[in-house]
Amino acid sequence: MPTALTKESILAHLAAHPGDTKRDLARVLGVRGDQRQELKRILKELTEEGALERGKKKSFVPPGALPDVAVVEITGQDADGELIGQPAQWERAGPPPQIWVSPGRVEEEGPPLGRGDKVLAKIARTKEGYEARVIKRLGASVHRVLGVLRREAKNQKGAMRVEPVDRKTRLAFMVDERALGGARENELVLVEPLAGRDHGAPRARVVERLGSMEEARTVSLIAIHAHGIPDVFPQEVLDEAARAQPAGSQGRTDLRKFPLVTIDPEDARDHDDAVWAAPDTDPANRGGHVVIVAIADVAHYVTPNSVLDREASKRGNSAYFPDRVVPMLPEKLSADLCSLKENVDRPCFAVRMVFDAGGHKRRHEFLRGVMCSAARLTYRQAQGVFDGKPDAKTAALQDKVMRPLWNAYSAVAKARDARGPLDLDLPERRIVIGANGKIESIAFRERLESMRLIEEFMIQANVAAAETLEKARCPLVYRVHEEPSQEKLASFSDYLKTINMGFAKGQVMKPAVFNRILAQAKNGPNADVINDVVLRTQAQAIYAAGNIGHFGLNLQRYAHFTSPIRRYADLIVHRALIRALKLGDGGMTDGDIARLEETAEHISMTERRAMAAERDSMDRYVAAFMEERVGASFDGRISGVTRFGLFLRLKETGADGLLPMRALGSEFFRHDLKRHALVGSRSGTLYRLGDTLKVKLVEAAPLTGGLRFELAESVGPARRNSQARRGHR
Predict the structure, then answer these.
(1) In degrees rounded to 5, what are phi and psi of residue 191?
(2) φ and ψ at residue 13, rounded to 5 degrees
(3) 277-287 pLDDT, tens per residue?
(4) pLDDT band at residue 7, thresholds of 50, 70 and 90?
(5) DSSP strand E in 139-257: where?
(6) What is the C-alpha to C-alpha distance for residues 608 and 421, in angstroms, rounded to an integer?
(7) How far is residue 729's CA from residue 724's CA, in Å, rounded to a whole number?
(8) Is the pLDDT of residue 622 over 70?
(9) How far apart are CA 723 and CA 718, in angstroms?
(10) Which residues touch 664 (CB under 8 Å, ≥6 apart)?
(11) Are 60 and 53 in contact (CB under 8 A)?
(12) Run of H or E residues at 694
């Protein structure tokens, strides 16, 4: 009998036979006559719903479906250090699926796998996505390895061993004396794998020397080079920057009569935004406020398709490390001509916004002007004024500058709270490095209301930029943030059940839904872990040429306008405004518009790259700080649960490390995805996300940034039983 023609029957068949065409389906399902139109309609609906994708030669496949065996290209590593890749060939609509790659024995037989390598692998679909087990490596490895030279006492005279900085790379390389290129012991080097082996180890040659590991600055260099961040400006870029001259005031709106101030962290390296506020004198807007946000006019200096522009585009953004910044623009611009220095005239791109008494924006206008910063303040100084404790510098600003700013913010904050953006608590660590290059302290930055003031005024300016460009029908790069996927929401719901918290599936997703859960958990034992799980449930914000809104901020349209010194996205938005509003030279070109989608994808990548490098650098500094504490015991909260062990976060420093599966004893532990837990097969012992364990630090590796723990106390029968009962409530 013919199979019933339903969506379910079609999906079931294609799950088993991906790549069948409409003709194949008609034959297998026994479709005849008028049913052909019904089959066409169902296939169209399934495709529009995202349940099917079109493949080659009019075929249909489940979304992201892969064959059992395929060629996979290694693209990098995930946050847990596992290799990830994607199909080497992908001709379907949409991005290729991500694949977790298990090297198997291939790394024991040659150089470790790295970005750019291609492998033939057996593909399996799991609840988490795709996994690939490598069958064989295809072609020679062409990637370079970053590592530190160590003296090899057992090998021939002059040869050295390279210890890779990548914690996933298990093999060391041997470098013959003739292949050292002058490099010495304890230097950070880039090596290129060679054919053959030396005393059982793969061979390599030094292709670049980066500095001695005895120098503190090398810690950040590891992260910079490991992630491929350009950190040296070509001479032609420096020459063009050197020729730049301060902009005059001709043709610009004079804003020097407004006492605009910059408010930044104490360790800020550039100052690209300034603010001013005053009561609105318009009788029709009683209780309202006028706010000016002035931004460095980088577009004046960095013009389309110039040498500076091409380099800024390539970098995409600045990257910030504990001991340095890798800027998007040369220092002549980033720290001088474009920085809004105190008591120095500077060209700016400003937005004047009018808010009513309730903090809702009534109107706004953009202009190119010239300003003079009345004061460079830190967040702590500004907070001191708001708290009624001004210092010698801010006392003179208290009445005419700071109080109007606070009053305007208080109104805008009411509208923000009513809008209900996602209210996550994201503590930020700060590493203080002493003059000797050693870490003096690691602590969490204090969260001040003065920071929220600047954040909210910047958000309002960014919204105004997007609104203006949409009204002018001018293309732009949006900052977009999708709502969480159904898969992540299902996982979130499953986890909440394990701690007796409800989450209704299928409800309309708004940030307020998560805020209610965060408020419910606040001050309770699960507050930290709920904050982490809510964060992991969110999609990653990216740049895009098309608008889908910003879920986290609960905004329909949003663009980045306020940081053009350190983000290329903001420079693009500045140019779009110049073009749309006819504000002089330096506007967006037709070529810029044609490349918007490509630019958005590129700067999204450079942002992720910088974030990964900054995180790696932080990990290495923390590992160096913790090295002297090996053997000490700590209270650690389980911050991640994987197939190979537990990730723990220490309360005092926020340091993250691994407690490997083998450290849990001889019992087999099963990874329970729904409960975010490891469950003992015999005892029922439960190690769950958010649990606190007493652990001992057994290894701190500054070279890789890794920390390794073991349990400081054994788990007795009483604790096992209580954990098992708690896990099955």
Answers:
(1) -120, 155
(2) -65, -45
(3) 999 999 999 99
(4) confident
(5) 145-151, 160-164, 173-175, 187-198, 201-212, 253-254
(6) 23
(7) 9
(8) yes
(9) 9
(10) 645, 678, 680, 687, 711
(11) yes
(12) strand 692-701
Asked whether 620 and 629 are in contact (CB, 8 A), the reply is no
**Which positions ≥6 away from 415 have C-beta within 8 Å?**
355, 358, 359, 360
Judged by phi (left if over 0) then psi (alpha if -120 to 50, else beta), residue 545 lies in alpha
Q: What does 410-423 look like in DSSP terms, one character per residue?
A: HHHHHHHHHH----
What's residue 723's pLDDT? 42
Between helix 307-315 and helix 596-626 the angle, nearest 10°, is: 60
Which pLDDT score, from 0 to 100, does residue 165 have?
82
Residue 166 near residue 124, CB atoms below 8 Å: no
What values do phi and psi take at 695, rounded to 5?
Answer: -125, 160
CA angle 150, 616, 263 (to 5 degrees): 135
Q: Whole-number mean pLDDT of the chain?
A: 86
pLDDT in tens, 85-109: 888 776 555 567 888 888 776 655 5
Find out whether 622 and 705 touch, Cβ atoms under 8 Å: yes
Phi-psi bin for 199: left (phi > 0), alpha (psi -120 to 50), beta? left
Three-class secondary structure of residue 597 per DSSP:
helix
- Asked if residues 291 and 457 have their Cβ atoms less than 8 Å apart, the reply is yes
Q: Taking Cα atoms as reference points, which of 251, 285, 244, 248 lies closest to residue 367?
A: 251
- Strand 692-701 relative to strand 633-642, pairing: antiparallel
Is residue 592 scored above 70 in pLDDT?
yes
Q: Is the pTM above the cut of 0.85?
A: no
Question: Coil, strand, or helix at residue 25?
Answer: helix
Q: Which string of DSSP letters, residue by residue, matches 466-524?
A: HHHHHHTT----EEEBPPPPHHHHHHHHHHHHHTT----TTSPP-HHHHHHHHHHHTTS
Model pLDDT, residue 423: 92
Q: Which amino acid is at 489?
A: L
Q: Is 518 left (phi over 0), alpha (psi -120 to 50) or beta?
A: alpha
Q: Which amino acid is at 421?
A: P
**Under a CB-based contact definition with an 8 Å cutoff, are residues 203 and 175 in contact?**
yes
518, pLDDT greater than 70: yes
Please state the separation of Cα 133 from the chain's center in Å: 28
Q: Please report, rounded to a whole number, the percentage of residues in the chain having pLDDT higher than 90.
A: 47
Structure tokens given for 405: 């700013």
